[in-house]
Give the backbone structure.
Amino acid sequence: MTHTARRIGRSLALVLPVVLVLSGTLAVSAVPWAGQGAGTQMLTASSTDVSTRAKSRAPQDILRDQLLAELQEKDPAVALTHLQREVENRPSLAKHCMSIARALGAAAVDRFGPTRAQSFSRPVCDTSFAYGVLHAS
């Protein structure tokens, strides 16, 4: 009797997991959000009736966008002057100064061309503006 019970137990140990996995797969594929038919509606990550707050942007990203807009409206010299003042007023922005100045340099090349953009170069943030101009050229 012990031998027969052991054999049945081994057979169940091999067959039962396979049956459970297959039945679970069939159960999941039968739910409406699995998208079987053309008439089923898929769940989406965004919806028009959801009102959630957008993540606040980092101060350096806001400053970069403001200075890039200013560069387009005026010229790179004005944007570089404002960058220098912002870094002096808010020292926490100093670690982002070089990346902002490089972005301004690349934007200046797009707007004015490499030769004219280089003429706006200043020693703001270790001449990162000039590096941005050079890299974008």
About this structure: The first helix runs from residue 2 to 29. The chain has six helices and no strands.
